[in-house]
Amino acid sequence: MAPILASSYQFEVGGERGWAEPAGNDSEAYNDWAAKNRFHVGDSVNFKYQKDSVLVVNKEDYENCVTLNPISKFDDGDTFFEFDHYGFFYFISGQPRHCKSGQKMIIRVMVHPEVEPPQSRTTAPSPKAEGDSGHHDGWDTFETGPPGFISGSELSVASCFVTGVVAMFVIVCVFM
Fold it and tell me: How far is CA 41 from CA 60, 108, 112, 127, 158, in A?
């Protein structure tokens, strides 16, 4: 089977204002915006900013606004970042004060619905290696991997079974 090509979308972070320190008590503005959008593998975000930078960090550095060890750093004022895998991406301002004011964002990237599912039916989480501290590279992904799928014959059997159970319930209710 040939994979199905999926379309991608480019999102403008912060709208006309761009990637800037939030004003007043609007410390969740970027996360509120991210929660209202659906991001898929292949989509991209465009950060426009002045006298600042965009850092891709791990979850812990995101929570604490740590700018010392970014996974990626961009400071060109017009950054395009393409999502190349599903999971959570953590973005913060390179200015710690801006980050603490809310110039940070978590984006959850999903598997694109038009992409063909993997050939295996399910993917189990890999066991933790002995001595694993739980700290990883910052690309926190879903614990169970990509969603599994049900074949047509399994779906037909399940559908017939459910229909039979519902029919028996209706018959019992009508004649009782």
Answer: 23, 10, 6, 25, 31
For 108, half-sphere exposure in the C-beta direction (CA atoms, 13 angstrom radius) is 9
Residue-wise pLDDT tens for the chain (176 aa)?
Answer: 455 456 789 999 998 899 999 987 788 899 999 999 999 999 999 999 999 999 999 999 999 999 999 999 999 999 999 999 999 999 999 999 999 999 999 999 998 666 555 554 444 444 444 444 444 444 444 333 344 344 344 445 555 556 666 667 667 777 76
Helices marked H in 73-148: 96-100
Bridge partners for 72 per DSSP: 56
pTM: 0.63
Q: Where are the domains of the chain?
A: 10-110, 149-176
What fold, for 10-110?
Immunoglobulin-like (2.60.40)
Task: Provide φ and ψ at 152, rounded to 5°.
Answer: -60, -40
Q: Nearest CA to 53 among 27, 87, 81?
A: 81
Q: CB–CB of 141/86 below 8 Å?
A: yes
CA distance 101 to 126: 37
